[in-house]
Specification:
It contains two helices and no strands. The chain is an all-alpha fold and 70 residues long. It has a domain at 13-60.
Length: 70
C-alpha cells in the first residue's frame, strides 16, 4: 500500500489521470480478449466498467464548485 501524502491539485489530477489510464488500458485489453473469444456479455461488462472509470475520473478531476447558498 502506498503511503498517504499531500498532493497539490495539479499533482493530484496528474496522478489520477496517469493511474486511471493504466486501469483503462487493462480493461480495454480484457474487453478485446473477451470479445475475441466470443464472451460478449463479459465484453459488454468491461465496456460499462471502462465508461464508469472515465466518469469517475472526470468527477475527481473537475474543480470543486462552492455553493452560493452558503
Amino acid at each position: 500500500m502506498r503511503s498517504v501524502q499531500y498532493l497539490s491539485a495539479p499533482d493530484r489530477t496528474a496522478r489520477i489521470l496517469r493511474e486511471s489510464a493504466i486501469v483503462a488500458k487493462a480493461i480495454a485489453r480484457h474487453q478485446r480478449e473477451a470479445a475475441s473469444r466470443g464472451r460478449t456479455e463479459e465484453a459488454r461488462e468491461m465496456e460499462a466498467l471502462c465508461s464508469g472509470v472515465s466518469e469517475m475520473v472526470l468527477a475527481l478531476t473537475r474543480p470543486h464548485q462552492q455553493s452560493s447558498a452558503a
